[in-house]
Structures are given as C-alpha cells and as structure tokens.
Amino acid sequence: MAKHSPQITALLAALHPRYREVCVQQDILEAFARNLQIFLAKHRQSEEALKSDLRDFLRDTFYHEFDMPPGEDHCDLRIQEKCSVPVKVIIEVKSPSNSAEMCTSADLNRKALQELVYYFMQERCEKQNVYLRHLIATNGEEFFVFDAQEFERKLYPRLKRSFTEFRGKTQVFYSTIAAEAISAVQTTEPLHYTYFSLQSFAKEID
User: Fold this and answer.
1) Which residues pair with 195 in a beta bridge?
2) What confidence tens digit (pLDDT) does each residue in 134-161 have?
3) What is the pLDDT of residues 86-100, one digit of tens each?
4) Is residue 35 helix, strand or coil?
C-alpha cells in the first residue's frame, strides 16, 4: 500500500466512505495532475484573475458538464448542474495578498467566512435551496471546505430572523451579525471543516 503524505491522509479521512469506493480513471487523474500544475504555475495577484483561473481549473478537471456562472449578489463562484437548478457549491475567493480577510486555522472568523454565511442564508431563506452541499473559502493555495450541513445546524437557527432584518445590508451583516454568530458557535460547538494547501501537493504530482 502506497504511503501518503499527512495532508493526503487527512483528506482521505475527510471523504465520505462512499467516495472512497469510487474508482477514478487514470486519464482523469492525469488530467487533474496536469491542470493542477498549470494552476500552480500561475502567479496571479488580483482576485479577478484568481477567480478566472480557478473556474478554468475546475471546469477542465472535474466539472465539464456543470455550469459555473459568475456568482450573484457578490458571490464569487457557484457550481450547479444547470443554471435552472439549485446551486450545489459556493466558493469565496480572496487574493493571495488579502490575508486580512482570509480564514486561517487559528482564526476562521474572517470576512471570507462571514461572506459565505451570508450567501448560505441567501440560498436558504430567499431561494429555499436545501440542496447546497459545500461552501469553500480559498486564496488559490489554501482551501477551507465546509459541509453545508454545518451551517444548517449551527448557524441557520441563529441567523434566520436577523437575516430578514439585515438583508441587503451586507457589510453590517458580515462584520456584526455573522461575526457574532460565528464567534458564539466557535465557543460552544465549533464548525468542522476540511483544510488543505495545494502547494503541499506539488511533490505528489511531479
């Protein structure tokens, strides 16, 4: 049995058991390695360039048949099977230089997560979307992946009334309402997430 790096071991442990049983074809693995090398080789600094590169990487690797339109209401990137069906994944992108707004393992309660909470509440309250699966914060190298059920169980009950009151007042919602809810949850029942850094995989795909 091949010996994996600690990061890959942690990712495998985070996968749902059903996904571990799926056999990934060799050509898909090769496409992933090739496209990841291209993605990592780019040295973009702007958030818009990063969003475009990330969309290309996902489309060319795993999501050929999915729609990834520009996000609505300031959301950076959405993934859905068709534009006519509910969004499954929401991604909030921060430029590599914007460390102040990007989550860290030591401090999740940054603007990136606060924005994800707002987008989740939009989908849940305004669009009655119960099919959302994941919410992701990334700066192109680090990824924080949250199961939508974490937001549903731990944040939605706290925020559904406040969201109605502060709908559209995004900056107030981010810095006050969402920030306070996240802080309270982190004190009592912290949000679970999966973290990985793409740079740590560079040697794995050489």
Assistant:
1) 144
2) 999 999 999 999 999 999 999 999 999 9
3) 889 999 999 999 999
4) helix
